[in-house]
Design a protein that fits this description.
The chain is of the alpha/beta class and about 230 residues long. It is about 45% helix and about 15% strand. Strands 3-4-2-5-1-6-7-8 form an eight-stranded mixed beta sheet, with helices on both faces. Strand 7, helix 9 and strand 8 form a beta-alpha-beta unit. Helix 1 packs across helix 11 and helix 5 packs across helix 6.
Length: about 230
């Protein structure tokens, strides 16, 4: 039973990776809980689901009912705890203890817990999931701002370095990913290939994992390699 946190700069492909990785792990007969405290739930859009208040992350943090009664079920082995769909801002007066308790309950309940961390390290759910994670996937992104984000968060990144797996998630075709890796002095363990059709597929609520054709097979191979690196 493990916790995996996905972190990185804004627009680094974190949520897309989180959703597709969770789906892939659930296909391998392991139960997965995907947690996302993002105020605007891109996750909900990708999965084509509405997260009701009673089956949301906010309800789970409040406690009072078991985690199995709070999660939103996507598939037989795929569950989600995310911000309610009908909210503009995820406002929660949760405490450190509530977040820690929730993460431990999730770890005990599901085979794998994946946390889609906001880029801001001061988010309580992100901070504690990064602290508790067995593996931290650091998405390098595909914008100059990604390098700036890494430089601005050097201290926080140092605290997770021993558990970090760098992922070069190619979100655009016109960016020099190799140059950014040299600038940051990191070597990505896995490269997630660029899929030009990704925005259209996601608008149709179709996941990238399982996409047919050469590009689809390359994407599946990359996700499977990532699972091997994470011992999933």
């Amino acid at each position: 039973m493990s916790i995996c946190s996905i972190w990185g700069a804004p627009q680094a492909g974190k949520t897309t990776l989180a959703v597709n990785l969770a789906h892939a792990v659930s296909r391998g007969d392991q139960s997965v809980c995907l947690i996302s405290p993002a105020a605007y739930s891109e996750l909900s859009a990708l999965l084509g689901v509405k997260i009701p208040e009673e089956h949301s992350l906010r309800a789970a943090l409040r406690g009072g009912t078991g985690i199995k009664q709070t999660v939103c079920r996507i598939d037989e082995l795929f569950y989600v705890l995310a911000a309610p769909t009908e909210t503009d801002v995820f406002e929660s007066d949760c405490t450190d203890e509530q977040v820690k308790t929730l993460l431990e309950l999730a770890r005990l309940t599901f085979d794998v817990v994946i946390v889609d961390c906001p880029s801001q390290p001061d988010n309580l759910v992100a901070a504690w999931s990064l602290n508790k994670a067995d593996t931290v996937l650091l998405c390098l992104g595909g914008h100059v701002s990604g390098a700036l984000w890494h430089m601005a968060n050097t201290r926080a990144l140092q605290t997770v370095r021993s558990r970090a797996v760098y992922v070069s998630s190619e979100v655009t075709s016109d960016f020099d990913y190799s140059a950014m890796c040299r600038l940051l002095d990191v070597t990505p363990a896995i490269t997630i290939p660029y899929i030009p059709e990704a925005p259209f597929l996601q608008n149709e609520e179709r996941l990238l994992f399982g996409l047919p054709g050469k590009k689809g097979r390359a994407y599946v191979d990359a996700i499977n390699q990532l699972c091997e690196v994470m011992n999933l």
